[in-house]
Amino acid sequence: MANESALPETDPMLVFEGVTKEFPATHKGENGFKALNGVDYTVPRGTITGIIGRSGAGKSTLVRLVNGLEKPTNGRVLVDGTDVTKLSGGSLRTLRRSVGMIFQHFNLLSSRTVFDNVAMPLEIAGMPAKAIKAKIEPLIDMVGLSDKLDRYPAELSGGQKQRVGIARALATDPKLLLSDEATSALDPETTQHILDLLKTINRELGLTVLLITHEMEVVKTATSRVAVMDGGKIVESGRTFDVFLRPQHATTQTLLASMPGTGLPDWIKRKVKDSPAPGDDALVRLTFFGDTADQPLVARLTKELGLDVRIMSGTVDEIAGDPFGNLVIAYSAEPGVMEQARAFFAKTGLVAEEVGYVD
Amino acid sequence: MSIDMLVNLLAKGLWQTVYMVFVSGLIGTAIGLPIGVFLATSGKGELFAAPGWNRVIGLIVNATRSTPFIILVVAIIPFTRIIAGTSIGTRAAIVPLTIATIPFVARLIEGAIREVDKGLVEAARAMGATPLQIVTKVLLAEAMPSIALGITLTIVSLIGYSAMVGAVGGGGLGDLGIRYGYQRFMPEVMLAVVVVLIVLVQAVQSAGDALARRFDKRNRKS
Boundaries of each ABC transmembrane type-1 domain copy (chain B) (predicted)? Predict the structure, then answer.
């Protein structure tokens, strides 16, 4: 697990302890379906934590355990110290009021206006109408919809609907916000706006956010920590930056490869050879971040080693707010030269990966 | 027959029909609605899961619905006598009409509720709603347009059924048409009855459609 041990001791908001979930067989003679296969994970207070995985990895089941929409077969789920699996009836409903949730398809009531949708959790909690009004108007203002109070969901765009969903989820002053693929039905631009809103809420209200997604892009922009799920298990977790930079598990690598700016471009992939022919160049991928991000690296390679460096592809990007770059270069594959280059990279603290050879 | 007499007969028949349909529709809906809600929410793994009861109630509903109405009218005469104190007349006719309305409404409400997006129920549960709050604030509220159309359909069907309660002296427009128009060979009465029924059904349907449109906020354009 990437650098998990290097993290400072954190105050947990949410803890999964040995959680398994088996759904009974739908037809006689079939085996039940094991959606969760022993999950241990802690979400620190005040963070935006992502859980990423392909569909069927178990991430939606996992998030539904947090507010007791599903019960685990084994294990404990602690929300701010309370074991949710032990709650039922009234005590479970009270807990649910302290955990907000937003959904992929928004799940707004079509028969209610924006105002009445946001008011619903408070109405359910039995708050008087006057207090509700005072409570939710600032919320609707915060998500930027104060001119749409009396509109119905059908009159709103997808992004606006999710804003209503967010305002509704915040109405009961939750300490934890669950986001179940909340941006998956939105276009990239709207997704960015919604993620920005979630980041603002996280920062200003100090709300812990657990964000379920299948999109690496979402994890990259919004989260500071991430857990990768596959086959009902968490296969890798840590700081988002570390996981992106040094993905350990095959699932993480596959998920990352689908993202633009990581991995090799297709046209290079087609040309890469495993062994050099005479006159071929070595293909090297450099990853730089933090202090190494702003070095005149190609110039130094040329000047200090006298290398003819070809730049094959490159990106400079941001992960969880930190800059990181990715540069694919090629230079002479002569063993002496490659040895020199390795020494140079080691000296400068650059992460260099020899990917293969090109002509 | 003079115009005056005809108008008198039609007015009386119309009143009896409206009275029977209104009262049986009202009582039938009042009883059918909770049964419909129960049918829609008591399946395996649902809000008020009681699969056994669901099957039993479903069976009774089906049995009532598959009994031809005219047979139901005669078959329950002893029961009618207990409830209405008599087995003939408009008041007595309300009993079989109500009995026929209950399962009809129940199935329509069940259908309307099952159309409500499951995601809304999940959202309400996540908010900490009680099962009863989910029924009133989510299921019934969201199903209102379909329920309005369903009740309109019920009333139109009841107007049709009410023609048959002439068999127990229920009166009404249908009975008028059969006794005067058919048995006494007075085609003008038959024609007048049919015209009044067409107008009545049209009016009910238009009112129902308008109500459903008012409830329906799903296709609003900004």
Answer: 14-206
My answer on whether A169 and A273 are in the same domain is no
Average pLDDT for A327-338: 86
Query: Which class would CATH give B3-215?
Result: mainly alpha
B214–chain A Cβ distance below 8 A for any pair: no
**pLDDT by residue (tens digit) across B124-136?**
999 999 999 999 9
Report ipTM (2 d.p.): 0.86
Q: Give the pLDDT of residue A6.
A: 44
Distance CA A347, CA A248 (A): 24
Q: How far, in Å, CA of A319 to CA of A6, rounded?
A: 19
Identify the closest residue of chain B to A171 by CA–CA distance: B127
Domain that holds residue A145: 4-257
Strand, helix or coil for residue A175: coil
| Strand ranges across the sheet with A351-358 | A310-319, A322-332, A281-289, A351-358
Distance of CA B186 to the CA centre of its chain: 31
Closest CA to A58 of A19, A26, A87: A19
Neighbour count for residue B2 (Cβ, 10 Å): 7
pLDDT in tens, A153-169: 999 999 999 999 999 99
Judging contacts by C-beta atoms under 8 Å, the chain B residues touching residue A87 are: none
Q: What is the C-alpha to C-alpha distance for residues B65 and B78, in angstroms, rounded to an integer?
A: 20
User: Does residue A138 share a domain with residue A251?
Assistant: yes
Indicate whether this model's pTM tops 0.90: no
The amino acid sitting at A57 is A
Write the burial class of residue A249 (CB in 10 Å: 0-12 exposed, 13-18 middle, 19+ buried).
middle
